[in-house]
UniProtKB/TrEMBL annotation, chain A:
Gene3D superfamilies for this protein: DNA-directed RNA polymerase, insert domain (2.170.120.12), RNA polymerase, RBP11-like subunit (3.30.1360.10)
GO MF annotation: an example: protein dimerization activity
Domain DNA-directed RNA polymerase RpoA/D/Rpb3-type: 50-354
Organism: Tribonema minus
Pfam families: RNA_pol_A_bac, RNA_pol_L
InterPro entries hit by this protein: DNA-dir_RNA_pol_30-40kDasu_CS (IPR001514), DNA-dir_RNA_pol_insert (IPR011262), DNA-dir_RNA_pol_RpoA/D/Rpb3 (IPR011263), RBP11-like (IPR036603), RNAP_Rpo3/Rpb3/RPAC1 (IPR022842), RNAPI/III_AC40 (IPR033901), RNApol_insert_sf (IPR036643), Rpo3/RPB3_RNA_Pol_subunit (IPR050518)
Family: Belongs to the archaeal Rpo3/eukaryotic RPB3 RNA polymerase subunit family.
PROSITE patterns noted in UniProt: RNA_POL_D_30KD
Name of protein: DNA-directed RNA polymerases I and III subunit RPAC1
GO biological process, one term: DNA-templated transcription
TrEMBL record, chain B:
Protein name stated in the entry: DNA-directed RNA polymerases I and III subunit RPAC2
Family: Belongs to the archaeal Rpo11/eukaryotic RPB11/RPC19 RNA polymerase subunit family.
GO molecular function terms listed in the Swiss-Prot or TrEMBL record: DNA-directed RNA polymerase activity; protein dimerization activity
GO cellular component: RNA polymerase I complex; RNA polymerase III complex
InterPro entries per record: RBP11-like, RBP11-like_dimer, RNAP_AC19, Rpo11-like
Nucleus as UniProt keyword: yes
Domain DNA-directed RNA polymerase RBP11-like dimerisation: 26-98
UniProt keywords, alphabetically: DNA-directed RNA polymerase, Nucleus, Transcription
Biological source species: Tribonema minus
Chief place where the protein resides: nucleus
Localization per Swiss-Prot or TrEMBL: Nucleus
Pfam families: RNA_pol_L_2
Lineage: Eukaryota, Sar, Stramenopiles, Ochrophyta, PX clade
Length: 365, 120
């Protein structure tokens, strides 16, 4: 068996770390070139709700980096600040603001930039020590934290609902109430946004209940949305979840036929095995085959009865990842994966650029 | 900003070499990085023939820092190996990007990909 396959036996996983046997074809190649030779991707399922793909031939550390980035570091837009003008409903300002923040928006984050504070802007313009000093010399610390908002980093929505009891309402009916929904958001274009987004910006779903109003109650507020990442707040995460699992590899070490085959098929709760007509007569001709290895959850039910562990081998491939990405909607799953790769690249590239800058400065002095 | 909002402060330094480093062995401190870059970079560095030892740690989860220890062979400066490692990581990301663009429409994965012949 290949060294990438480790067995799941009755007690524990076995042979998880086995010695590497170098491939002669790869002798002398640098690591990225080896990755280029080995890496394969295959799309298994793609719906608006889920993307399932195979990532084969890469180390777990990089697969995990992609997963972590998809969850926490791919930016999206979400409501960050709420200016409450009127709230006479029973829901508290803070709770309402929190609910508003979690509303997914149909805004492509790639068309917006991140909000910078004055301090960050100054630091970026003067990456020297002087820039640092200049920021620190600013007397008003609060001013340094001023956020530079403009049409390129902020989307504004308004929400104004007032519940008015209809004149013809039945006095005997239960008290009149109205719901406030995400569909009631009104987009207030800033600057050139109206031309940039001719179709308008809105929440992803119009039917999210945010609050309920009784007759005479009113909610009036303004919301500012900005770009952020999931590690700051979960509302910015572009995915409902992103996960991977190792591909199961199930083999039958012996021919399993007849009553034994039926026993095997019945033992598996995930219905991994099938019975096919093999060679031979009657009962003994029906052999068990591994029909759906991907459905296996490694519950080991099939190797639990005595004697079965020798016949069925349950294993996983440690370099074959089955990724599942469930987007929230603002970005399609493929774009999220692509963005994750971009973010990882930017991390490494940003450090290289930093080293170059330091080198340049050293040569100048 | 809401009442109980906590925003962790960004790291003071983006990159730093810890005291006591020699040319061939050093501990690098990366600000605002975590296991995401740490483990991936560690893996890439460990594939380089010049690397003798490489390990990383996040000393405390509430400090935005990641430490990476790198020891090299044959007098090769550790910082050079680190730069090459970062470059390799960039290349791997480019390869991933290419393969992602080439990834076709959904199809049945039933045809078992034979990874027995593949050695990573």
């Amino acid at each position: 068996m290949s060294k990438h396959i480790f067995e799941m036996r009755g007690d524990a996983p076995h042979r998880v770390f086995s010695a590497a046997k170098p491939d002669p074809a790869e002798r002398g190649l640098r690591y990225p070139e080896k990755v280029r030779r080995r890496l394969r991707m295959h799309c298994c399922k793609e719906t608006p709700e889920e993307l399932v793909f195979d990532l084969i031939g890469i180390d777990v550390s990089i697969a995990n980096a992609l997963r972590r980035i998809m969850l926490a570091e791919v930016p999206t837009m979400a409501i960050e600040t709420v200016y409450m003008e009127m709230n006479t409903s029973i829901i508290f300002d803070e709770v309402l603001s929190h609910r508003l923040g979690l509303v997914p928006l149909n805004v492509d984050p790639r068309t917006f930039s991140e909000v910078e504070t004055l301090r960050q802007k100054v630091l970026k313009e003067y990456t020297t020590r002087d820039g640092h000093k200049r920021v620190q010399n600013e007397e008003d610390a609060e001013e340094q934290e001023t956020e530079l908002l403009d049409e390129n980093n902020t989307v504004v929505f308004r929400l104004h609902r007032r519940c008015v009891r209809p004149a013809d309402a039945d006095p005997a009916a239960p008290p009149y109430t109205e719901g406030v929904y995400s569909g009631h958001f009104e987009w207030i274009p800033q600057g050139t946004q109206a031309e940039r987004f001719p179709d308008g910006l809105r929440p992803l779903h119009d039917d999210i209940l945010l609050a309920k109003l009784r007759a005479g109650q009113e909610i009036a507020l303004e919301m500012h949305c900005r770009k952020g990442v999931g590690k700051d707040h979960a509302k910015y995460s572009p995915v409902a979840t992103a996960s991977y699992r190792l591909a199961p590899r199930i083999t039958l070490a012996q021919r399993v036929a007849g009553a034994a085959a039926r026993e095997l098929v019945a033992a598996c709760p995930m219905n991994v095995f099938d019975i096919e007509d093999g060679e031979g007569e009657g009962e003994g001709g029906a052999v068990a085959v591994v029909a759906r290895p991907r459905d296996c959850t490694m519950c080991r039910e099939c190797i639990r009865p005595p004697g079965w562990a020798e016949r069925v081998t349950l294993a996983r491939e440690s370099n074959h990842f089955i990724f599942s990405v469930e987007p929230c909607g603002a970005l399609p799953a493929r774009v999220i994966v692509k963005e994750a790769v971009r973010v990882l690249r930017a991390k490494a590239h940003g450090l290289l650029a930093y080293f170059e800058e330091v080198e340049k400065k050293r040569n100048l002095t | 900003m809401s009442v109980n909002e906590h925003r962790p402060k960004p790291a003071d330094l983006k990159f730093e070499i810890l005291e006591g480093a020699t040319t061939t062995s050093a501990t690098f401190v990366f600000g605002d990085e975590d296991h995401t870059l740490g483990n991936a970079l560690r893996h890439v560095l460990m594939q380089m023939p010049e690397t003798d030892f490489c390990g990383y740690s996040v000393p405390h989860p509430s400090e935005p820092k990641m430490n990476l220890r790198l020891q090299t062979r044959d007098g090769v400066p550790a910082i050079d190996v680190l730069k090459r490692g970062l470059q390799d990581l960039v290349t791997i990301c480019d390869i991933l990007d290419e393969k992602l663009d080439a990834m076709g429409e959904p199809s049945d994965p039933a045809a078992p990909v034979d990874s027995d012949s593949m050695e990573v």
